[in-house]
Task: structure prediction
Amino acid sequence: MRAWKTSRRQLFGVTAGALAAAAGTARSASAEGSIRMFWWGSNDRAERTRKAIQAFEAADPGVSVTSEFAGWDGYWPRLATQIAGDNAPDLLQMDPLYMVEYARRGAIRALDSYRGGALQIDDFGEANLASCSIDGKLFGINNGINAFGTILNASAWRDRGVEPPAFGTTWQQLVEMCRAFKKANKKSGFYAIADGSGRDELFEIWLRGQNKMLYTPDGQLGFEAKDLTGWFEYWAALRADGGCVTPDIQALSKSDAETSPLTTGYAAADYAHSNEFIDFSQLNKAELSLTGIPVNEGNVASNYLKPSQMFSVSAGSRDPETAVKLANFLVNTPSGVQALGVERGIPAAPAMRALILPGLNANEKKTVEFITNLAPYAGKFPPALPKGAGEISTLILRLSQETGFESSTPAQAADQFVREANSILQRR
Amino acid sequence: MGDGVVSKSPAPLALPDLPAAKLARSFRRNAPGYLFLAPWLLGFAVFTVGPALASLYLSFTDYDLVRAPELVGLANYVRIATADPKFAASIHVTFIYVILSVPLKLAFALVIALVLNRGIAGLPLYRAIFYLPSLLGSSVAIAVLWRQLFAADGLVNAVLGHFGYAGPSWISNPRYSLYTLVLLSVWQFGSPMIIFLAGLRQMPRDVYEAASIDGASKLRQFFRITLPLLSPVIFFNAIVQTIDAFRAFTPAFVISGGSGGPINSTLFYTLYLYQEAFGNFRMGYASALAWVLMIIIALFTVFSFLTSRYWVYYDE
Result:
């Protein structure tokens, strides 16, 4: 008995010691000048970013930066869990799709007070800063401009005697081009373009060509069921003609370069953000080119420039000043910008853009040219996305599949969409 | 050891014990046992009971991970029951999966176990080979492999192509996608097979000898002797596999890229729960979904136990 009592006390002592030690390490991770950065992206992005971070540390010996990255899917759960655990990274990568939610919940911090000090981004321009602001406050630092575009294998088109889509191609012309492609095509299981009916980015540009929008400024749907019916019908007709890939091929795509029908050899064109062009051209053997999204005649400025991503500083950061400094280094300091290149998009600062342009390779130059050539086809930046926009984006995808596999008609799918989307928007 | 100590102190036994004293005494007697159990108990409390209770609390709240949880009463449960089409869709998918995959897997495992039990040469090798898929089964790599096998240009279609049949992209066609996942589950028949094999090894030989002397055919012996004697093992396997099937997550997550698509055809319950929790950050709602799943599994298990007395034979 005696021996047992001693050992219990010992055991308690050991446990308490271990707990204290664990608490100690948790505390010590956040010393002054030491910050953590977290982003999503490829290995290529990680290499570039780590190189830039090393340059930042070399320039300021007082700071140290630990970094981690994840794929897009894994990034958001991990970020949310870290924030909930009061262990948020100081500097994090933010997407326009989620910025409103994070800003309004108070998870990321307004950066206006750093402007003119640690943050020198006045040369980004008002429109750019507005696209990174919520309720008039700056919550993100644009780390690359991009726009939605068409990525295509031009020689696959020309081999079939068809001129590929280009800037200014109308939606109607696209249908005719795909028909001509189909007619001249001998390769079975190969199609002119991917099925874009499930991409909300593409649908948004289609709507803007008709002076409508995806979401109104007060966070409601900016279109009616009949607009979506028209969209689904456009693609249903193209599908019926064999102008775009079959629905079971399209369903293999996860809307990234790796699983795109263009990369996997089922289509001669797909739709993606312009910064993804780097990934696409690395994965495709054929030479690719990048051009605009189809337009409506007489209303061509339906596309728009957007921040591909932003850097945001978490509200829980214990050293926001250093985090802002690092972000500023990455977007508006020559050595930082040169290390990152255009992999996250085109630098927003004109001086930085001019600086890195000569050092870019042919594919990277194409993304810069694309942004330059897009000017006549780019309109105003749309209102901030409402909470639930991410969920609604997957809803369009699902309903487009229902029309593709013909378990719903375009009109049924559009009605269903409006019902479900409104219920998502009303949910708090 | 404890018994000996207690029986040597007769004095307290004469008086009726106070409950507290009784408890203290029983604790003292069992303390070494609890001490040995402590590592497990601690882990169970910290990593299982604690989070489970937290999730029970969260299921009555609205919680987005960033702001503090806000109590909303039964609102989450009311929504699940009345206004959630995706809940209905995921229940539908999950039930089809459970109802198809569990019996098929058990039947397959039993057949292979019967074959292996005939005493073929190299039994340990075959046993290991057949068990391998179960070890790998829930891993991401196997799900990726499955995606390659059943894709439009996968191995399955290449084989079918030799017979002049151009197959669809099985995993991305809503008509077939769920069944490819059922097949994946059946393929992982290893662990029930091992348990069946152990059960078959325990069969008393004399019963079979008596049956063959009486002229019972092999088939009759199987249905009249093997199955009844094996029924406790079948029962165990059925319960474990049913619970496993309800909790299936990785294959659907990997194969559909986390979407449960195409058209929700692989939206397993756990996948929907995951989407709500980590895609839409509705931790409160996801917790409520988790508790509903636990209740469904518990009901299934209770039902199995209630019916077991009619078909499970225990040799007392």
